[in-house]
Request: fold
Amino acid sequence: EPTIVKSLCHEHIRRVFCTGFGTLALTEKGQLFTFGGNQNGELGLGHRRDQPTPSLISALQHEVVEDVACGVMHVVVRCRSGKVLVQGCGRWGQLGFGSGVILDVPTLLKLPTQSPAKMIFAGGSHTMIVTSDDQVLVCGSNRDGQLGLDMLSQGSLTNLNLNLKPDETVKQVKASILHTQARLTFDSKIACGASFSLVLV
Reply:
C-alpha cells in the first residue's frame, strides 16, 4: 500500500519522475532528490548502488533544476541556467556521448546549437531536446524508428531539420518506449514510430 516518504515531508515537492527502477523528486526550490534502483547510475549520486532513501544530488547543488525527463535507465535534466545534463545508461547513445557509456553523475551535454533548450523528453532509450528556436535534437535508439532517422541508433545529438514554416513552432513532444510525437502549433503534427514513417499533416 502507499507509504509516506517521511524524509521528504518537509520538502515542497513540485513533481515526481520515475525511471524503470528509480524515483526522482523535484522540489519547488529546484533541488532534485533521488532514490530506488541505481544499477546504471541513473540516480546521479556518483555510484551504482541502490539508494533506499531519498538523497539530494550534490552535483546539482549549485543549479536550479526546472525539468526532468526519464527513460528506462537514463535521466535528462534541464536547469534554469540553460544547461542540459544527463546521467545513467547510454547503451544505445541516449546520453549523447556515444554508445555504451554509463554516467553516474549529472554530466553536461553540449548542444550543437547556440540556442538553449526549452523542452526535454526521454523515451525508453532515446532522448529529444527542443531548443528555444524550435530545433529538435535527438539521440539514442532508433530500432523502431522513434528518432525519425534512417539509422539504427545515434550516439550524438542530431538535428531533425523539420523545416518548419515561419508560423509554426514546436508546441509539445511526446516520447514513449517505442515512438515519439511532436505537436506543432495550428494542429500540425510530426510523428515517427515503430510502424510508420515521418509524417506531416
Q: What stands out?
A: The radius of gyration is 17 Å.
